[in-house]
Amino acid sequence: MSVCLMSTIDVSTQSDDLDEFARQWQSEGIEGDLLPMKIIGRMFRLMKTIEVEVGRCHEAFDLKYGEFDVLATLRRTGAPHCLTPSQLHQSMLLSSGAMTNRLDKLEQKGLIARAHSQEDRRSVKVQLTDKGKQVIEAVFPLHMQTLRSLLNNMDTSSRELLAGALKQWLAGIQD
């Protein structure tokens, strides 16, 4: 991955494939605002790159992203690092089917344990094991290093501007 500073790149004069796609549509008589296509198209490309880079980081620990997310969610809740599957589901926006599959895999690896609640035997608690805590504490710094490296071509003010714009956009389209 190449690293360059945002201040040294004038992207206003550079074009990419998405600019070319918009020009092609315009040459075919499509009128109107094609900026949404360029924005979303670039986001799709970014997500593919992010998935590959973050995936490499997690593979070193035999984790998929969803498994990492479960471990990270349990770790950030603080001791005793324990939540119900419903609490995990709400925090991570996963379907309950996807959650069950991830929990099964993490339990098989010895990274989490499931136990019935003392208060309500129908309720199950998911808890980070000592091994799971060791794994998430080892992978998390590398995960963050990977995310930082993906943003290396942007200066701090550009990152903050992007974070604010994405937050505003997300708040405006979420229910």
Automatic annotation (TrEMBL):
<dbReference type="GO" id="GO:0003700">
    <property type="term" value="F:DNA-binding transcription factor activity"/>
</dbReference>
<dbReference type="InterPro" id="IPR000835">
    <property type="entry name" value="HTH_MarR-typ"/>
</dbReference>
<keyword id="KW-0804">Transcription</keyword>
<protein>
    <submittedName>
        <fullName>MarR family transcriptional regulator</fullName>
    </submittedName>
</protein>
<dbReference type="GO" id="GO:0003677">
    <property type="term" value="F:DNA binding"/>
</dbReference>
<feature type="domain" description="HTH marR-type">
    <location>
        <begin position="36"/>
        <end position="171"/>
    </location>
</feature>
<dbReference type="InterPro" id="IPR036390">
    <property type="entry name" value="WH_DNA-bd_sf"/>
</dbReference>
<dbReference type="InterPro" id="IPR036388">
    <property type="entry name" value="WH-like_DNA-bd_sf"/>
</dbReference>
<keyword id="KW-0805">Transcription regulation</keyword>
<dbReference type="InterPro" id="IPR023187">
    <property type="entry name" value="Tscrpt_reg_MarR-type_CS"/>
</dbReference>
<dbReference type="Pfam" id="PF01047">
    <property type="entry name" value="MarR"/>
</dbReference>
<keyword id="KW-0238">DNA-binding</keyword>
